[in-house]
Amino acid sequence: MGFRVIKTAAAALTAIYTALLLGVDNPLSAGLLAILGVESTRWRSINVVLARFGASVLGLGVASMLFGWIGFHIWVLALYILIAFPLLVRSGLKDGIVTGAVIVFHLFARGEVTLHAIGTEIALLVIGLGWATVFNLVYMPKEKKALTELRHRTEEAFSEVFRRLAEHLRNPDTVWDGDEILQGESAIEAGSALAKRARENRLIPQDEPWQLYFQMRRQQLESIQLMMECIALVSRHVPQAELLAVLFDRLRLDVRSEYYEGETDKMLTELEKGFRDLPLPSTREEFEIRSALFHLSRELRRFLGVAARMKKRKSTSVQAIIQ
Q1: Which of 4, 50, 7, 18 is nearest to 128 (CA)?
Q2: pLDDT of residue 313
Q3: Which of 75-84, 93-102, 209-218, 261-270 has the least mean pLDDT?
Q4: Given pLDDT bands bounded at 50, 70 and 90, which one contains residue 241?
């Protein structure tokens, strides 16, 4: 936010001095338009500046006809709003409504509709929005450090969740408030928003690996939440629960890896074979526990399936999903 303020100040100052050097009337308006044109990402800057320029030109056309036919009465401004605003929204130029209104009100203050007056307003638009675009395109803050930190927070939260789940499987009387789930969810949402902004700062469209990463973690978080529901049904320690706890111990390490190694998947396959070889449960409680553990293994399979699809294989020589 601090850098954006500095960039806005520089764009406004440059626009004002440019208008002064070119002898354009009311140069301060160029600074105001530059302030309105500064945005947080490169692609949004381009799209918004185009919308504001188009809306302003369209608004000038509507206002010029109204002022020329009816005159410069204050109530005509209300008529302009009633006509132009819905027209701009339907034209897909709603981002330029405020900028267009600034230009139209400035034209109203001049009290004349001439080629010189309209040309002056367009010149102010080009100078103000032009310099805003230049400053937006020249530099945007890098997001890699913040994204790396959010990735670390997500993986730490997942690792702690797996430790807690393994602990509960070994000791069903363990109490846990689930705060790590909330921490992981918060980091994933913040990372997704930041990754989207990082992608919009690329002038050449391309896949954003950070978006893929946080998309993977969001899907895995859903699996973890379902795992918790299954584990909550395990009311006493059973041998199969200990085997699943060993898998969660392994996942605490796997979740930090950039590669998919497949070892946990193999361990789960062996565990599922062992489940099928067990005799049928003899009591209702045992049936319920075994059923919960079976569903838990299914969710583990889904969790690992997401990683298998979206992580790089250990044997590949290409670089990992996140540099």
Answers
A1: 18
A2: 59
A3: 261-270
A4: confident
Look up residue 145 and give its two tokens.
Answer: 């450090």
Q: Are 64 and 33 in contact (CB under 8 A)?
A: no
Q: Greatest CA separation found in the chain?
A: 94
260 φ, ψ (degrees, to nearest 5): -100, 115
Q: Tell whether the model's pLDDT for residue 318 goes beyond 80.
A: no
Amino acid at 247: L
92-to-50, 55, 63, 95, 197 alpha-carbon distances in Å: 11, 9, 19, 8, 22
- Using alpha carbons only, give the angle 198, 141, 54 rounded to the nearest 5 degrees: 70
CA distance 221 to 154: 10
CA separation for the pair 136, 156 (Å, rounded): 35
> Which residue matches tokens 């709003």?
81
Which position has the token pair 């379902």?
A: 226
Give the number of other Cβ atoms within 10 Å of residue 137's Cβ: 13
Q: Which residue has the higher pLDDT, 264 or 280?
A: 264
What pLDDT, on the 0 to 100 scale, is given for residue 242?
Answer: 80
pLDDT bin (cut points 50, 70, 90) of residue 284 is confident
Q: Is 139 exposed, middle or buried (0-12, 13-18, 19+ CB in 10 A)?
A: exposed
Work out the burial of residue 304: count CB atoms within 10 Å of its CB; fewer than 13 is exposed, 13-18 middle, 19 or more buried.
buried
Integer Cα distance of 213 and 90 in angstroms: 37
Token couple for 233 = 């049904």
Buried b / exposed e over 28-42, threshold 16 CB at 10 Å, is ebbbbbbebbbbebb
Dihedral sign (CA 42, 46, 47, 52): positive
Q: What's the mean per-residue pLDDT of the chain?
A: 82
The predicted pLDDT at position 321 comes to: 41
CA–CA distance, 118 with 278 (Å, rounded to integer): 85
Comparing 144-158, 216-230, 264-278, which segment has the lowest mean pLDDT? Answer: 264-278
